[in-house]
Amino acid sequence: MHEAERLIAAFRARATASVRSKLDALLDLERLREPRVVPFLLEVLADRREPTPVRIHVLKRLRNGHPVPGYRPAVAEAILRVVSDQGSPDLRLQAVLALAEFTDVDPVPTTLGALALDPDEPIDLRYWAFTSLQRAGPTTECVALLRRLLTDEALGRSARSVLSLWHFA
Questions:
Q1: pLDDT in tens, 79-95
Q2: Domain spans of the chain?
Q3: Are the CB atoms for 77 and 112 separated by under 8 Å?
């Protein structure tokens, strides 16, 4: 059995283990820096039975781990599913932050813009969606979304500042 397969099996065997034990198993697996680890991490991220701290750890790993280019759309899609799940506010917030690394993948900018514009979302989620969207730079889509935010009571000033910085104000 290959090392990655052994470590994945070890993680799965810890289904009822403590969060700390699961995180230790993930850290061992992440050291491998092997492409086949990414699909497993996506499974863990999608599994609502996993504790929130474990899923947040996976999100951070996917955000900071520079996934193999072929996996970028799959990673972005998995993170977008987490954002749409109303289950855990902390997990959603971390997912919005992670999307900053995937603004080049459709429909990430559109989703971030919709979150930033939605007055029914919590302000911290809206703000982090705005800052993640800002990371995309002055694309046509981002400029249009930020212009829509200009009249927003909470984020209008910030949108104006970014548009000015980008020379679109």
A1: 999 999 888 899 999 99
A2: 1-102, 104-169
A3: no
